[in-house]
Amino acid sequence: MIGAQPDAVDRVLVQYVAVLADRHLIVTSDEESYAQEAAATALGDRSSLGDVGSTRALVDKLAEPAAAMVWSRDFACSDLAMSQADQDGQDQAESLVNEAGGVSPLNGLVVALAPDRRLTVAELFESSSQAKQNLRPRARLAVGDAPGRGGSFSDDLKLTVSRTDGAAVILRLQPKERTGYVLSALDNGPVLFATC
């Protein structure tokens, strides 16, 4: 574990770095305890999200991505909740969910970016019947208005496939631009199609 010092303007860029040469990994954090935990997990000395059955089932539905974000169990419901939006955004989201036909809570969410820049969104539900009920509403929400963020998801993404796979809804989206940060539209703040 290597400690780094804050730069001249008191911003910490990287404070702790663990080099795991055998795994070809570098773990960084601004907290020593998190860097130690992450290193131990990467080495297999601690349990990880991969040990959670529902998360493993969701991730196994994806081809090998260039980058991916995983929200295990109901963490997507709290991390990407529309409750983080202002009241107008929340009211608009509630109206859009009702117009789409309603949704069930998520049991997990994965957003994966393929090397060719296509996005796969996999949303896990309690059962295959719940996934089937959520297919159309979730597809509509994934390309509809984006209250709390502005504009519409369809400004940046085109939905090319929507289907179920067991207890999961699988959405494939193609970015409309050839460059840019595709994941950043979906990785923080209130995201309507991840609503619970």
Proportion of beta-strand residues: 15-25%
Mean pLDDT across the residues is 82
Number of DSSP strand runs: 8
Biggest beta sheet attributes:
5 strands, antiparallel
Q: What is the straight-line distance between the termini? A: 39 Å
| Low-confidence segments | 1-9
Shape: globular
**Structural class of the secondary structure composition?**
alpha+beta
Q: Measured on Cα atoms, how large is the radius of gyration?
A: 18 Å
Strand order of the largest sheet: 4-5-6-8-7
SSE order, as H and E?
Answer: EEEHHEHHEEHEE
Q: Assign a percent range to the helix content.
A: 25-40%
Number of helices: 5
Question: Notable features of this structure?
Answer:
single chain; about 200 residues; alpha+beta; five-stranded antiparallel β-sheet; three-stranded antiparallel β-sheet; 5 helices; globular; disordered N terminus
Protein architecture, described:
This protein is α+β, with helices and mostly antiparallel strands and 196 residues long. It is built from 5 helices and 8 strands; from the N terminus they run βββααβααββαββ. Strands 4-5-6-8-7 form a 5-stranded antiparallel beta sheet. It has a 3-stranded antiparallel beta sheet with strand order 1-2-3, with helices on one face. The longest helix has 16 residues, at 128-143.
